[in-house]
Every structure is written in C-alpha cells, then in structure tokens.
Design brief:
11 helices, mainly alpha, 275 residues
Length: 275
C-alpha cells in the first residue's frame, strides 16, 4: 500500500499540474529566504519566515482538499485551501508550543547538570522532540480528510501512526530516499556549474579546508555562484514539496479509505445509537 501510494502520487502529479503549485510557492519562498537577506538585508528574514508559516496551511489544505474531493480546478484549490486553513494552522501551533514547552522543561535539568551527562540528556531531548514530530506528523491530513478539529486531528494522527507503524516507517524512508536522490543530483549540478570557481579548493590542504568558514565559500563563488546555489536549492525544495504533499495525501487516504468510523454512544442498557 505504501509503495502503491508512490505511484498514485506520481500519477496525480502527471495528470494534474495544479498539484505542483505547493512546490512552486515553496521553491519561490525558499529562493527569497536565501537571496533577500543577502541582497537587501537580514531584517526581512523573519517576515519571510512568518509568511511561509502562514501560507503553508493554505497550500497544504488546497492540495489535500483537491485530492479528497477529486476536484483539480483552480477554484477547487482555493476553496479547499480556505476551508482547511484553520483546521491545519491551529493544530500546528499546538504542536509547536508543545515542543517548545518540552524543550524548556528538559533544558532546565540540562543546565543544572552540565558535563557529560548533559550531552546524554541533550540526545534524550532530541529524541523526545523527534518522537512528538513522528506521531503528530499526519495531523494536517487528518484535519483535511476527516474534518477533525484541533485536538482531535492531533489525536487522530497519533492513532493513525500507531495503527500503521510499519507502513509509516516505510513512508518516512521513501521520503528520505527521494530527498537524498534530489540532493545528490543537485550537488552534482552545483559542482558542474561552479567547477571553475571551486577549483582553488583542490589546491588547499586538509587543514586549510577545515578552517574554511561559510562566508569564505560565499566569497569564493561570488554573486553569480550565490544565485546558482539559491536557484538549485529552490528547485530541490519545489520538487520535493510537490512530491511530499501529494504522496502524503495519497498515503493517508489509501490507508483510511473504506474504513467507516461510526460515531455514537451506548445507552444505559448497552444499546448503540449512531449519530
């Protein structure tokens, strides 16, 4: 089912170009994140990041809603994005503050302990944060496909992951493989385009290479190299974002399709009443 979702996502992207919109917007925002601070100033970094946070729920909701309703028109995208916007935005804030609170609560003993034990505690802290992200990752698809409210979408994500643990692990693995492949192609392309500018690195000793700072590399490749780097990185983000969100929707929908969740309650005599 997990591998079939990959082919389903690829077919959707092939047949319905509007699904690439999330990738195009994410790629453009990524390009702005890299270029604007260098060309204009670091003052605009936080506003751009805030814009990205506020835009993403609309884009994700639009993609999920189109796949749910099988309506791949521009009007369908806008309608779904508006309908799912707060269903996705509010749980994301809850998860974010839960992670922040966890980090603060665990950082206090880290500061008090110090030393080698603190390093182990830092690994524990990272593990806790990753665990939260792992189990709540499908909150947005639950909110869009099942129309759940804020806390219910988070609970539903945890339930979905626990009920489909191995499939979810394969899902994460496929995303990692796709990202690594895109990164490898991007690195090869970047090296080929900037081979002349990077040639001085070949003459440096290992000690000199270790002393290199990011600003030294930027100075070496120049303005043209910075633009090439930003464009290649933005293309990778665009391609991966389009694949990821479409694959995520296909994966979630395929596993919950046909599962009828009856809502109701038992009375005092044990009789079931469906809403």
């Amino acid at each position: 089912m997990t591998l079939k979702s990959v082919t389903d996502a690829a077919a959707l992207l092939w047949r319905h170009p509007i699904l690439w919109s999330v990738g195009l917007v994410m790629g453009l925002l990524t390009l702005l994140d890299l270029i604007v601070p260098l060309e204009v100033g670091a003052f605009y970094t936080q506003p751009l990041l805030l814009l990205q946070v506020l835009v993403m729920p609309f884009l994700a909701g639009g993609i999920y809603g189109m796949i749910r309703e099988r309506d791949f028109s521009g009007a369908g995208f806008v309608r779904s994005g508006k309908d799912c916007y707060f269903r996705i935005l509010l749980p994301s804030f809850v998860i974010f503050f839960a992670v922040v609170l966890t980090v603060i609560l665990l950082a206090i003993p880290l500061a008090l302990i110090g030393g080698v034990i603190a390093v182990n505690m830092a690994a524990l802290l990272l593990g806790v944060v990753l665990s939260i992200a792992f189990f709540t990752f499908f909150y947005d698809t639950a909110a869009a496909f099942e129309r759940t409210k804020t806390f219910e979408s988070i609970r539903r994500s945890v339930e979905f992951v626990m009920n489909n643990l191995w499939s979810v692990l394969v899902f994460y693995l496929i995303n990692i493989v796709v990202l690594v492949l895109l990164g490898f192609v991007a690195l090869f392309t970047w090296s080929a385009l900037l081979v002349n500018k990077l040639e001085p690195l070949l003459t440096m000793s290992p000690a000199e290479l270790q002393m290199l700072m990011p600003e030294d590399v930027l100075a070496l490749i120049g303005t043209e190299g910075i633009w090439i780097t930003a464009i290649i990185y933005a293309i990778v983000v665009a391609l991966f974002s389009a694949f990821h969100y479409t694959y995520k929707a296909s994966f979630f929908n395929s596993l919950v399709a046909g599962v009828i969740q009856l809502q109701g309650e038992y009375d005092e005599k044990g009789r079931w009443y469906k809403y």
